[in-house]
Design goal:
With 298 residues, the chain is mainly alpha-helical. The chain contains 14 helices and no strands.
Length: 298
């Protein structure tokens, strides 16, 4: 009898959209989202292969080349210690990739766990869980980040865990809303009537049908995490030096030598702006392509 529910899910109409066809649709229907996708791929590539692409070490000092403007030798100029800004930007992208993907992945797992359990079980469990989520969302994000990092201490590990918890608990409301709509579908009732266990229903029927909003939630969380980590680094609460972070570059030499060498602030500032904007527009395009309600009637 449990196989009846599985057969009903398999019988649902599914479009044969592979990865290549999905990318073609993205470039054809959402050109701005395609731009965001290209920027995200370049950002990911630079982060993964920063050790190969960087012409100099991120902490390689050259006093002779202090505060050099952008040129053929130093594409983004040099800072007050003679370090190549282009190399530091690449290594900063590497840190942003690690922190962004790790914290966004942790946040997505937390959101899925809380949202699926709370939305499917309902009742007192849902009421108590959502009141806790409401109370958590009442506190300003920046205040929580500053307080927790001040107590725990700066570093990559604490930043990933804190940002994952911060965005994971708040994002569970989105997953819960999707689960509430899926829970009322006939195949869920068929699985319940056939005696399927709750973990099986959640794993085989509920979770696959809420993956579209979960994917969009993950992409938007990556941009939010990068922006939050840059803000913490700017305040001196992120990854400590000598690790090059984009927010740390803005806070250190970028702020001290802003008028004498404006490229010290422009380079990391533009990188943060372009990457976060690209991730957001790519997430919006994913939402439009994955959500049937956003496509309009044919």
């Amino acid at each position: 009898m449990v196989a009846i529910a599985d057969a009903m899910v398999a019988a649902l109409p599914r479009k044969r959209n592979g990865a290549v066809h999905f990318i073609v649709r993205l470039f054809r229907e959402k050109p701005l989202g395609a731009f965001g996708f290209v920027v995200c791929v370049v950002f990911l590539f630079c982060g993964l292969f920063a050790d190969v692409l960087a012409p100099y070490g991120y902490n390689q000092i050259s006093p002779v080349n202090r505060l050099k403007p952008p040129s053929a030798k130093f594409w983004f100029g040099t800072d007050n210690l003679g370090r190549d800004m282009f190399s530091r930007i690449l290594y900063g992208a590497q840190l942003s990739v690690i922190i962004g993907l790790s914290a966004a992945g942790l946040a997505t797992v937390i959101s899925v766990f809380i949202g699926v359990v709370s939305g499917y079980l309902g009742g007192k469990i849902d009421m108590v869980t959502q009141r806790f989520v409401d109370a958590w969302m009442c506190f300003p994000d920046l205040i929580i980040l500053i307080v927790v990092v001040s107590v725990v201490g700066p570093g990559m590990g604490p930043v990933i865990v804190i940002l994952g918890l911060l965005y994971g608990i708040g994002g569970s409301r989105i997953v819960r809303g999707a689960v509430l709509s899926v829970r009322e579908n006939p195949y869920i009732h068929a699985a319940q009537s056939s005696g399927a266990t709750t973990p099986r229903i959640l794993w085989r029927h509920v979770l696959p049908n809420v993956m579209a909003p979960v994917i969009v939630l993950f992409t938007t969380r990556v941009g939010a995490v990068i922006l939050a980590e840059s803000g913490l680094a700017f305040l001196g609460l992120g990854v400590p030096p000598p690790a090059p972070t984009w927010g740390g570059m803005l806070s250190g030499s970028g702020r001290s030598f802003m008028y004498l060498a404006p490229w010290l602030a422009l380079a990391p500032g533009l990188c943060i702006t372009v990457v976060v904007y690209a991730i957001n527009v790519f997430g919006d395009a994913l939402r439009d392509l994955l959500d049937p309600r956003m496509r309009g009637s044919r």
